Each structure stands twice: as C-alpha cells, then as structure tokens.
Amino acid sequence: MSPLFYHFLRFSYTVQCWLTRRFTNTGLVVLGCLLLTVLLGGDTNHSLTYQIFPFLLSLLVLAIAVSLSVRYGFNARRMLPRFGTVGVPLTYRVAVQLNSQRSQTGFRLLEEFADPRPRLAEVRESPEPLVPMGFAIGRLLGLNRWFWLLDRKQGARVKPVEVALLHPNRTTDVVLELIPRCRGVLRFRGLTLARPDPLGLFQAFRTISLPQSLLILPRLYQLPPIALPGTRRYQSGGIALASSVGDTEEFRSLREYRPGDSPRKIHWKSWAKTGKAIVKEEQDEFFVRHALILDTFQSQAYSEIFEAAIAVAASFACEIQTQESLLDLMFVGLETYCFTIGRGLSHTDRMLEILASVTACRDKPFDDLIGAVINRSTLLSGCIGVFLSWDDSRQQLVRQLQAMRLPTLVLVITENPEQKPATMHDSLTSVLHLRWNQIQEGLMQL
User: Fold this and answer.
1) 86-127 confidence digits (pLDDT tens)
2) Assigned superfamily of 286-443
3) What whole-number distance in Å separates Cα of residue 360 and Cα of residue 369?
4) Would the pTM of this model clear 0.90, i.e. be above it?
5) pLDDT tens-digit profile of 253-267?
6) Per-residue DSSP letters for 274-300?
7) Which fold would CATH assign to domain 3-116+155-217?
8) Is there a smaller number of Cβ atoms within 10 Å at the N or the C end of the chain?
C-alpha cells in the first residue's frame, strides 16, 4: 500500500465517522438526495430536479445552524466491570449530570473510543485476511488488510442510547450495552452527549474527556467432558508450591540426624532435650500437574489462526479442574513464561487475563519453547499443546514427550481442513486438527 493511498483511507474514515455521527438517519437521506439533485440537475433545460436543490440545501443549512447554536454542558462517570469476554454482551452504567437550569429531552449518549486506524507499517506487514473481503482489486491495493485491521482495532461496539429526560443538576443513570469484538485492552476516550435539531437532521455534540480501560478476555468455547490422563508426580517446590494440593509436605516423625540432612529440618526443641541432633521427617509432595503449551510463533503481528489458538487455550484453562491439581501455562513472548494456577496459587481469572495480553513471538525460534517444556517434564503428569502449524519443530517436541511417556493432547489450528497433521497417535498421544473458523465443531470431537 502506498503512503498516498493510506492517507486517503485515513481521511475517508474520518469523513465517514463525522457524517454518520453528526447526521441522523433522516439527515443522511436528505444529504444523499441533495447530492443526487446535483448529479441529475445539471441540465436545467431538460430537468426540473435542480429546483429541489435549494430546498434541501436550506433544510440542511438551517439544521446545522440551529445545532451549532445550542449550548449545554454535562458531567459523567462511567462504571465498568472488571473485565469482559469476546462475543459476550456486557452492560454497564454511566451516571450523567446535565449542567443546566431546566430539564431537557431528546439526548443520545455515545461512547468515544481510541482511534482504531492502523498504522501504515501494520497494514503492510499484515497478511491477507482468511475471510474473503471484497474483490481482487482490494487485495491488490491493500483494502482487505485495512478493513480487517480497522475492524479488529475497533475492539467493541456500543449502540447509542436514547436519554429521554435529563434533570438540571441531578444525576441520571444510563445503561449501555457493549459487545467486545477482540481480546486485549479496550480503551475509552470520552463520552458524547448528542442532541438533534428540531428537524431531526443534524446533531449538536458535546464531548467530554473520560479515559478508562477495560480488559477483554479471549473468546471461550464449550468443551466436552475431558479426563486428562496422567499420574501424580513428585514436586520439589516444597509446601509453598504444594499449598494444600495433593499430598503436601506434612510432618511424619522425628529421627536422629543423618549425614546429608538439611539443617532446615533440624528440630531444635528435641535437640535441646536429648542433646542429640534430631530432624523432622516429612512426607513428600505428590500431585497431578498438567502443562498447557501455547504456540505463539508466527511472522505476523495478527492472524485469525493465532486468535483462535488463544481462544482454545483459554477454553482449556477454564474447563480443567484445578481444585486438586495444577496447570502450567507455557508460552514465549519477550521471554519464556510459565504461569501456574491451582488451589492456593492462583485462579483461572488470572490466567485469562494473561492470555488476553499475549502477543505473537516474531523473533525467536520454536526451540526456545521446547527447552522450557523439557526442563519441566519431570514435574508434569501430562501436556496439552495448542499449535499454529505442524512443522518439524512441533513434531520434534511431541516425539520427545512421547519418549518420556507423557500423555499428550495436541491441537493444531489450521487454515485448510485438507492439510491434516501427520499421524502420531499412540496410547498416550492424540493429535487433532481444528479449522480456525470451525473451532467449536472440532472441539466437540475430543
């Protein structure tokens, strides 16, 4: 995409937003008819259409003049929930106070979000969207990528709400419904209180700055009942890690000191009574621990396949019962991360918040993730892998897990349903491919 065409698209979007927000639906019809009379009324000798032009123009000029002369002010306070979820409508309240000496009617409340227009570098680096959009010329000019990125960066949609009556210097609660469209941080910029002119063509606008943010969690899919295989493993992290999960490091008995015992296990009171070194003998920690391996390695910043993979990982994080086990989320971003949830450590909400902020890893090899998984393999009872492709590096990781006799479930998100992953099934390993736009149907096959 050329810089000139990019700036033309930015300007066009600005004009479109101004027209659709300042003009009512009736006003847009009148504006369209006005432009039509300009096109059809050029020949005044053979057409009388030109006579309609001054009438429509007068209506619009009058409506705009009246709206611009209206003066009012307001204050507002937005009360947002802790977070939302992609595709799940949420409602929230806005307390509006009109700064006026008398009651007024006919207002509309609109949300103002951060500018969603993508940067030129983002448009150039973004791949073509998998969803067909427009014609071949759109692919050539980069229009498909522009509209896909614009739709993604808008984040959410909030319908304008009619406010029937606002009283002077009194707070009125207005309920708005927001539909999140993509995960991440949704940034609010302000609130606008609009009021149409008496003709109902053009709206007066008053906008106040009210910056806030709302974390949008990934989309969640329904999963069938899943019994993850795996046996309890010895955990060397001690009681702080076990934290009432499985068999914790509980006191068993007292015995005499043996060479090699840790000084931390010395029972000082018994030593003082007997005059001999006495140590506490404790029960080792064993419990079930699974790894949720998320593949974040791709060359683009955004893709539908990457978003589908995060949604699948989030669905497993919600469905896996962690009251009696632990779940490690492992992925690579700026560095290699491992976040653990389970009773006494952290909760599912925390893992979903992490997944809401995960970005693609574009400058590291998949081998970085392989090393992290293998280093923790002795602690794991089983693994769930969510992969973006099925190349040699991914297959190598699965083979190593097979060699360690670790039960493994691999889900490969793919674009083409015919490109199924190579068969690597055995008694401990299952590989399933999921088409990016048919995730729910594929998950029900588990």
Assistant:
1) 989 999 999 988 887 788 888 889 999 988 888 888 888 877
2) von Willebrand factor, type A domain (3.40.50.410)
3) 13
4) no
5) 677 777 877 777 777
6) HSS-EEEEEPPPEEEEEEEEE--B-SS
7) Immunoglobulin-like (2.60.40)
8) C
